[in-house]
């Protein structure tokens, strides 16, 4: 059987694969003995079959419309049937549903076969739909492929164990970038690069990593009690007026000579200009911070260990003291250094030392909003449970100065 067809979108290769000869509509009408319609109703397809097109068709042509009512001009079709030019028609869609009085004469014509517009509302179709839903739910609950998910195209790749360390890294970077950002974040961008067992640069992978970064960002925001996840994070960010973008460009540190096998960069852009950029890599299965803005010569910081103090100026005596602690590390630069505090609690540095901090809780912490406190460190050992470093609070410093014997760290 020879099949000809017209589709303004489908490429010629697809027609060839299906064994269909691609033609313009003007060449389809005079060749076809049976014409079937498979198109939505649009301004371009409304009354596609009309008196003019019917006159171009073969005498005795049969027309089948199971697509949408309104594609066939019903009165023109009835006229062609009565004139004997059209041999028959099969319809299950109509201009008005249920059909109006003007359509009843067409439906009563002896050469017209008509059925109600059932769609998928047959017994067999409902049984098959139920089976499909049951299979898809079982696959989902067993962490297999996600089939038929309409709003999240990256759920299948999210179940791949190989990408989970990178998804974790993206989430941690989203949290860190937001907490270091100097202002209200209005845009989050993510770039990825890697020579890994699984691609972290495919569109689905980048979409997943971006969603994970947004989960980290939203963990520091007021989401009115809604727990962010990779499904709802993009929508929650949109509700907060935050733009998001997964970049196709590789992070700045990526190159053939890079010592890293993978890199993810998250940038938090703030209102009024300015941005905070954080870059991380996966070592083993652990997410590590390797670059903060233009600082990158500090030891990689495992983002699952303890808390971080970041000084924007010279570290000073308080920072040096913490840097010498067991588990503590200070950056090599005197300016822009980071200190890892891996101990279970902050012990007193000196009786005259106070710490003014703005605390931004991470996901799961019991503090509902940011708080500012000035405390004598000698009186808060160990820290109250609500402030324990086990909650991975991030302390960012802005200005360390000495006043006699008092050393005060003013934090954001």
Give the helix/strand layout.
Layout: E1 4-5, H1 12-18, E2 21-22, H2 25-31, E3 34-37, H3 51-55, E4 61-65, H4 74-82, E5 86-91, H5 101-107, E6 112-114, H6 123-141, H7 155-158, H8 164-180, E7 185-194, H9 203-218, H10 233-239, E8 243-246, E9 262-270, E10 275-283, E11 286-292, E12 301-302, E13 307-311, H11 316-323, E14 329-330, E15 338-341, E16 353-359, E17 371-376, E18 394-403, E19 406-411
Task: Give a summary of the structure in a few sentences.
This protein is of the alpha/beta class.
Oligomer: single chain
Helix content: 25-40%
Overall outline? elongated
N-to-C SSE string, H for helix and E for strand: EHEHEHEHEHEHHHEHHEEEEEEHEEEEEE
Identify the CATH class of the largest domain.
Answer: Alpha Beta
Q: How would you characterize the largest beta sheet?
A: 7 strands, mixed
Give the structural class.
alpha/beta
Tally of alpha and pi helices: 11
Uncertain regions: pLDDT < 50 for 5+ in a row? Answer: 326-412
The CATH superfamily of the largest domain bears the name D-3-phosphoglycerate dehydrogenase, domain 3
Mean pLDDT, all residues: 76
Rg of Cα set: 33 Å
Strand content: 25-35%
Q: What is the CATH T-level topology of the largest domain?
A: 60s Ribosomal Protein L30, Chain: A
Please give the CATH architecture of the largest domain.
2-Layer Sandwich
Question: How widely separated are the two ends?
Answer: 76 Å
| Widest beta sheet: strand line-up | 14-15-13-18-19-16-17
What's the count of strands?
Answer: 19
